[in-house]
Amino acid sequence: MSPPPSTDYSKVKQDLDHQAPGAIAAMFGRVACRYDLMNHIMGGGLDLYWRWRLVQAVRKQRPGRVLDIATGSGDVLLALERHHAYTGCAIGADFCLPMLQQAQAKRARNLLVGDGLGLPFADASFDAITISWGLRNFVDRLAGLREMRRVLRPGGRAYVLEFSHPAAWLAPLYFWYLRKIMPLYAQFITPERGAYEYLGDSIHAFPSQPELAALMREAGFAQASWTNLSLGIAALHIAEV
Ligand SMILES: C[S@@+](CC[C@H](N)C(=O)[O-])C[C@H]1O[C@@H](n2cnc3c(N)ncnc32)[C@H](O)[C@@H]1O
After folding, report:
1. Per-residue pLDDT tens digits for 187-210
2. In whole angstroms, how far apart are CA 237 and each of 51, 122, 132, 183?
3. Maximum Cα–Cα distance for the chain, whole Å?
4. The ligand 1 atom nearest the CA atom of 114
5. Residue ID of nearest Cα to ligand 1 atom 25
6. Which atom of ligand 1 is nearest to the CA of 74?
7. Any atom of ligand 1 within 6 Å of the Cβ of 42
8. Cα–ligand 1 centroid distance for 2 (angstroms)
9. Which residue range forms the structural domain that includes residue 234?
10. Across residues 20-40, what is the average pLDDT?
11. What is the 3-state secondary structure (H, E, C) of 87-99?
12. Is residue 196 situated within a structural domain?
């Protein structure tokens, strides 16, 4: 009997390092069925709190139409509905069908297969856009932010929740944990160790809080500010058109 095929992690990592969009969608496709479990274990439940902060920020504005880009397994979309954060409707878009199927299984509605770099919506279609742990995976973040601005109406807001750069004293320990420890125990829950090596690297390479705010302004947003969450491990950026 031949041995079971094993994943070539170095190949997975190479593709992801070069940010091939197909490789990113395929990677999320492979982790989709364990995605929620991994999130809650790795984040120690903090991910729930961070999403809650995002939803509360949107709720303050009470927008009419909301688009959740890179909606994945739908947790933000569902929380927006549960907390009555909008008055009209909310749509969730993602380019990875297996992730959307997870969202569908959780009874998320208004799901759409779509690429954040080319949204199938007219200019000024939405009052608010949310994106949590999505922008980091975009092959062209500036283009993704420009696309968000395009589909937002004047005065509309983008809410970007992402892992960020923690306080200086915490950073060495945190990045060591992400790079060395997390992929080790991720492999016991998911076969995709490469995906979690990619996670650590991509967080390290992601713009710092002021850099992301500057990128949002470069994309055409009039204002961009941020709130650090959990010592800056995550940050919520809010930008207005
Ligand atoms: C880490 S998951 C985040 C899912 C969800 N927002 C959450 O809070 O758990 C990242 C998601 O971004 C999606 N994604 C990455 N790049 C994308 C793009 N260019 N367009 C649409 N979705 C994208 C992936 O398919 C994946 O579902």
Report:
1. 666 666 666 667 777 888 899 999
2. 13, 24, 10, 27
3. 63
4. 21
5. 96
6. 5
7. no
8. 35
9. 9-115+124-240
10. 79
11. CCEEEEEECCHHH
12. yes
Cβ of 102 less than 6 Å from ligand 1:
no
Please identify, by atom number, the ligand 1 atom nearest to the C-alpha of residue 100: 27
pLDDT in tens, 103-116: 999 999 999 999 99
CB contact at 8 A, 44 and 231: no
Q: Which helix (H) or strand (E) holds 193?
A: helix 193-205
CATH of the domain at 84: 3.40.50.150
Q: Read off the amino acid at residue 12.
A: V
Structure tokens of 165?
């750069």
Domain count, the chain: 1
Q: Is the CB of 135 under 6 A from ligand 1?
A: no
Nearest CA to ligand 1 atom 1: 133
| pLDDT surpassing 50 at residue 8 | no
Mean pLDDT, all residues of the chain: 87
Average pLDDT on 68-92 reads 97
In the block, tokens 């470069």 appear at 218
Q: Does residue 70's CB lie within 6 angstroms of at least one atom of ligand 1?
A: yes
Ligand 1 center to residue 174 CA distance, Å?
23
Residue 148 domain-assigned? yes
**Among candidates 207, 221, 236, which has minimal Cα distance to 146?**
221
**What are the structure tokens assigned to 119, written together?**
């949204």
130 lines ligand 1 (CB under 6 A): no
Q: Is residue 3 one of the residues assigned to a domain?
A: no
**For residue 189, is it within any domain?**
yes
Whole-number pLDDT of residue 218? 97
